[in-house]
Amino acid sequence: MKETTLTKIMAVACSLVAVSALAQTSTTVTTTRDAATGTVVTEKTTTVDTSGTITEYRPGGDYFTLRAGTTGAPARFYYTNDAHVFDPEGHPLSWSVMRPDIPATVYYVREGDRMIVRKVVLSKPVVVEKTTTTTTTTERP
Fold first, then answer.
1. Do the bridges between strand 84-86 and strand 114-122 make them parallel or antiparallel, or are there none, so unpaired?
2. Domains of the chain, CATH where assigned
3. Cα separation, 45 vs 109, whole angstroms
4. Residue 35 — φ and ψ, nearest 5°?
């Protein structure tokens, strides 16, 4: 039992490290003046992006998982109605095109221990052609 729990903890830790190691960060600082009080309000938002392959997605759910690189454990990304999906050229797509095994870049912000998705850019999946040869043998009496 202890080994299983320890293994799960290590898998989660490794996935967070893998996602963080492959991620790029950009910070936006927005300064506004509150009209009622006249005070200046500064808000800092840090958006992170990471690339990988979607490993799990359920329509109607509130998260999907993404594996960054080839050896990392999948990390869970939560999304809301504010999140949008785009193709590589920047055209908006429906969430219905999401499915496992699609390469994607995810832009997200951290809220506590959750990664909240702001934008997903789907890459075109690699097409693998499979050639099948069928040989039929007929015996004649």
1. parallel
2. 2-25+42-122 (2.40.50.320)
3. 8
4. -65, -35
